[in-house]
Amino acid sequence: MRKMLLSASIAAALGLVAVGCERSPSPEPASSTPATQPAAVTEAITDEHSYAEPGKVRTTDLALDLAVDFDEKTLSGTATYSLEWLDRNAGQLVLDTRDISIHKAEGLSAEGEWTALEFALADKDPILGSKLTIQAPEHPTQVRVTYTTSPEASGLQWLEPSMTEGKTSPFMFSQSQQIHARSWVPLQDTPSIRFTYSAKVKAPKDAMVLMSADNDPAAARDGDYTFKMPQKIPSYLLAIAAGDLVFKPLGERSGVWAEPAMVDKAVAEFADTEKMIDTAEQMYGPYRWGRYDLLVLPPSFPYGGMENPRLTFATPTVIVGDKSLVSLVAHELAHSWSGNLVTFATDKDAWLNEGFTSYVENRLVEALFGKEQADMETAIGRAEVVEEYKTLDPKLQRLALKPGDLANPDDSSSATVYQKGAWFLSFLEQRFGREVFDSWLKGYFDRHAFQSMTTAKLVEDLKQNLLAKNPGKVTDAEIQEWVYGPGIPASAPRVESRKFSTVDAARIAWTGSGSLPDKSITGAWSTQEWVRFLEGMPDALKPEQLRQLDEAYKLTGTPNGEIAQRWYPLAERSGYVEARAEMGKFLERVGRRKLIMPTYKALVETQGGLAFAQQVFAKAKPGYHPITTGSVQEAIANAKPKADPAVPAKPGPAQTAKVPETLHPSDPVPPPAETE
Ligand code: BES
Ligand code: ZN
Q1: Are 38 and 20 in contact (CB under 8 A)?
Q2: 566: Cβ–Cβ under 8 A, 6 or more apart, which residues?
Q3: Mutate which of 354, 384, 531 to test ligand 1's pocket (most atoms within 8 Å of Cβ)?
Q4: Tell me: the pLDDT tens digits for 396-433?
């Protein structure tokens, strides 16, 4: 745990000052500190998930020289850091590492020679990894570390050819967020430090290597690759991938990288990407990263998408043929402003990245696909908050977390950071009007471009640039409640969706009378309508009811992961064991955490389910990413199965139909639908 108190001047230079805070007490007249200029204050930045000491020394550039070894499952080579020493009394450079073998540390002497530096690698902390302390009393402008990663590196996944689409070549990719970059590069792994980077990478000749940098669509596959990222980025945006990858353009500055068998499907699904970039630019100012390409990964990718600059990493599970899940692209593209440009200073402020991005994502969806589509997505997101808050610890319902709230940064509440965060911005938009709010948001991205952001600094900016300029619309107390309070404030705006009203009516009619909506209706349903249909179901139904749904709509075996995410848990809780075989295949094929964890959680509720989960996991594990493996292991270890094998729940509270509660937390609860 590191706590840094930056001096006023350093903090101001680094852009970490809370804008507009008064110096107190100030003997000078107010005019000496104009409102537009940040006043000198000290702000404690605490990144409890990094050993680095950014108040003493900061990396300004990272140069990597690495070799990819698929047989050993390692990256090895050197990392060279250009350093800015801030504290003249500092004697060492402290880096974050996890499971890395350090062979050598050297410093560039004043005479321009590399000389060995003493270093010590501490014992491994289960979450933070091992602190690497390099003695550098001479404050070298550059330090170089020679290292090899472990085959178990938490930030890399090495896939056998059998786990890829083409089945002929191995594949490797990184996932650095939140704190996994340190497992493949020793570095100051905190988002409060930004640096440019370059890389030389050697790989087997048939493997294409890509990074979160200036990938050349026409690059020759010669086993020798060089990269440059001239914009300063935080460590969690370092990314690399290698495999049998080909490129197809989507537009002038966008394209898709994928395995040959996947690339055409991806091009069709993501055809609107160039339009999305244009739309985002009109709303939020220039796209500042050059190209925007997408890399479609194998299905074991543990997330939906990752906003690696210039090269979004994406799960293939959003390629469903009807573009209904391309809000993922809108989301990752939106991070080019919220997150990659204006970056949370520590993961306690994750909502500054994800909440802002979810808001912008929805605005892009609205602009490109219409308000009805955007509203359906909003309603699904808000339903998640309402559902999650029934059981979530109130301290994790606050947008701004306090130190110690989040032991493991991989476990944050997505409903809070994504949905409550976006809901807050919708609230501001509603109160101030779209035009005023949009211009504030665009200004916010400009004012803080390439800087670290804290919640306190955001609140200051809001007060100064939105509230004070448009008085009488929102009170300080309302801001406080949204940002620092648990739950969803009663002032939260509502969303209405005509299409969802139809879906709700169909579900209620079916649970009441057993008559299902005609295929002519459901045939036109999008992913979102199916999700709504299933999410509104009682916790458990009778197996014969599931059978009826399945016969009508073929839900078991669905290729759509979003539908599978809702269908299999319902099937399991309802004792509909016929779904097990396809459920098992789904859990083996897909490694995206969000899609598969609900099914594992439903399985471990009963002894029979737990046994099945263990069996499936044993088979699936070799293909899972370390992050997914960790989550599944935890669910299995924490299981408290009921003695009974999977049987339908008895009538009672468990069968109460869920409120179509998504519309508003303060809406009155309608009577439960009849299930008998
Ligand atoms: N940056 C996140 C992924 C992430 C968050 C990785 C926290 C590690 C820690 C990415 O932008 C994201 O939000 N992905 C979502 C998709 C999106 C459409 C909501 C996901 O993976 O589900
Ligand atoms: Zn995101």
Answers
A1: yes
A2: 530, 531, 534, 535, 598
A3: 354
A4: 999 999 999 988 898 877 899 999 999 999 999 999 99
Cα distances from 499 to residues 136, 321, 435, in angstroms, run 63, 21, 27
CA angle 105, 108, 109 (to 5 degrees): 125
How far apart are alpha carbons 390 and 407 in whole angstroms?
A: 21
Measure the CA angle with vertex 274, ends 270 and 275; round to 5°: 100
Judged on CB neighbours under 10 Å (0-12, 13-18, 19+), 637 is exposed
Mean pLDDT of the chain: 90
40: which 2 tokens? 């000198």
Give the whole-angstrom CA distance, residue 305 versus residue 290.
19
**Ligand 1 pocket residue status of 335, Cβ below 6 Å:** yes
Question: From the CB of 354, is ligand 1 less than 6 Å away?
Answer: yes
Ligand 1 atom 10: residue of nearest CA:
306
**Ligand 1 pocket, residue 332 CB under 6 Å:** yes
List, for residues 579-629, the tens digit of each pLDDT value.
999 999 999 999 999 999 999 999 999 999 999 999 999 999 999 999 999
Q: Mark whether 269 is an active-site residue.
A: no
Nearest CA, atom 11, ligand 1: 306
